[in-house]
Design goal:
Blueprint: H1 2-44, H2 49-54, H3 64-77, H4 83-114, H5 120-131, H6 135-148, H7 156-159, H8 166-179, H9 182-190, H10 195-206, H11 208-224, H12 227-232, H13 241-246, H14 256-287
Helix pairs in contact: 1-14, 3-14, 4-8, 4-11, 5-8, 9-10, 11-14
Length: 292
């Protein structure tokens, strides 16, 4: 009996091995595709404009450190670019918007999950519907509203709207439905704890994996945002790094080495943040997959 089953077991093992190899090949292929643009960008930052115009650079310049210094010096000479100012503005906007997004989205998701009131499903459906509306559709009305409030040209129009983040509410609500036990909430109420105490001290720690995941996505999205800041920010001292890099392109002559240096300086903080915190994304996505 075992002898008859042995060929089948070998065939099944070979099929599993072939499938695993195919999966690895596909994953490696798409990983390389994702890394290539960043590789080209960092490599081009080590070359001068003439060399970049002659063709794609797959490897760094033999005199990479010298050319990096030249490109950075040319970048520092531009009156419209200041890495320190752009970094500070991007950091202030990204951190503030992320904090508002994560906390108030968690509060909204908690209310929609814990409280059973009439119209709860309708409100959630509206939130999901708002997710489908692109930013470009309502930017004109938002611009006029910010102008009427006297907030144009400041960082506030890029920070305050982060309170309403439909996609973050949706994600956290789905996470709570599989991870939050109503017995914990009810026990807290029986012990005399207030609603905000229950949320902040008991339920918020349970949400940490989802909060970390959405916080990273929010930070990266806000840091890389170009469309809204280009419309709402006018003063150079208020502009973010992506806006300053976009101003490096000249009408007649473009220093590509300088531009790639600016792009690398703008993207490098995001790459570092993602590299160190990517495990939270994986744990956050997988954490709510199983009902305990």
């Amino acid at each position: 009996m075992s002898a008859n089953n042995e060929p089948k077991l070998r065939s099944k093992s070979a099929s599993i091995r072939a499938y695993s190899i195919m999966v690895y090949v596909v994953v490696i292929f798409f990983s390389i595709l994702a890394v290539i643009p960043f590789w080209f960008m960092f490599m081009n930052a080590t070359w001068d404009t003439m060399s970049i115009q002659r063709g794609i650079k797959l490897w760094p310049n033999p005199n990479a450190f010298k050319q990096l210094g030249i490109n950075w010096e040319n970048l520092a000479k531009r009156s419209t670019f200041s890495f320190a100012v752009g970094f500070k503005n991007s950091l202030i906007i990204s951190v503030s918007a992320t904090a508002l997004t994560v906390y108030f989205s968690a509060l909204t998701a908690y209310g929609l999950t814990v409280y059973r009131f009439k119209g709860r499903k309708t409100i959630f459906a509206i939130i999901v519907g708002v997710m489908m509306v692109p930013t470009a559709v309502n930017i004109t009305g938002f611009y006029r509203m910010m102008s009427a409030m006297g907030l144009l040209g400041s960082k506030w129009p890029l920070i305050l709207p982060a309170i309403a983040a439909p996609s973050t509410v949706f994600f956290i609500k789905q996470y709570l439905e599989t991870s939050l036990s109503m017995e914990i909430v009810e026990a807290s109420r029986i012990d005399g704890a207030g609603e905000f105490y229950t949320f902040n001290r008991i339920c918020l720690p349970i949400m940490i994996p989802s909060l970390a995941t959405q916080g990273i996505f929010s930070f990266l999205g806000t840091w890389n945002n170009f469309f809204a800041p280009s419309i709402l920010l006018s003063r150079n001292e208020d502009k973010t790094l992506p806006l300053m890099v976009a101003q490096l392109y000249g009408d007649r002559y473009t220093d590509y080495g300088m531009i790639y240096m600016g792009l690398s300086a703008s993207v490098l903080p995001v790459v570092i943040v993602y590299a160190f915190l990517q495990r939270y994304i994986i744990s956050g996505v997988a954490a709510g997959g199983v009902k305990e």
